[in-house]
Write a structure and sequence with these properties.
Layout lengths: L14 H11 L12 E6 L6 E9 L2 E10 L2 H14 L4 H17 L14 H4 L5 H15 L1
Helix pairs in contact: 1-2, 2-5, 3-5
């Protein structure tokens, strides 16, 4: 499998590049979640990408998260990283992360520094054509949370 064009500009030795490739090739939490209590989805009509997110919420904590997608590798890697980051966190924190991440991508919010787990996505943030790819799973998560 050759590298996708979105990943070619970064040097292969860059650990962020390697992390993007790893999440795109072996996404975490990409599965069905039969016991889900919440569902959300998002789609990009321009390219046909779609993401659905399933959650198990217990009280005010996100106990489990999974996603299914038909998308590009950027969207898949972002969804995979997102699920690892938000799993087990309080819902208020998850909502804040969703809002902060989406603002960081769309507006280049310099006041917010993404958690280390999301640092690889900074390689793609400067490419406005990839903004929707980066945020689609996060929009599906926000939809699931209501």
């Amino acid at each position: 499998m050759s590298a996708q064009p979105f990943l070619r500009p970064a040097p292969a030795a860059d650990p962020r590049h390697a992390a993007l490739l790893e999440h795109a090739r072996h996404p975490r939490n990409r599965r069905d979640l039969d016991a889900a209590t919440h569902h959300g989805s998002g789609s990009n009509a321009l390219c046909g990408d779609s993401v659905s997110v399933s959650l198990v919420v217990d009280g005010d904590v996100l106990r489990e998260i999974a996603f299914k997608e038909r998308s590009c590798n950027v969207c898949k890697a972002s969804a995979s990283m997102m699920t690892e980051l938000v799993h087990g966190r309080p819902l208020a924190e998850v909502r804040a992360l969703c809002a902060d991440f989406r603002r960081w991508v769309a507006e280049g919010d310099a006041a917010w520094t993404p958690p280390d787990a999301l640092a690889p996505l900074a390689l793609l943030r400067e490419r406005s054509a990839r903004h929707r790819c980066l945020t689609l799973a996060w929009e599906a998560l926000a939809d699931a949370l209501g």
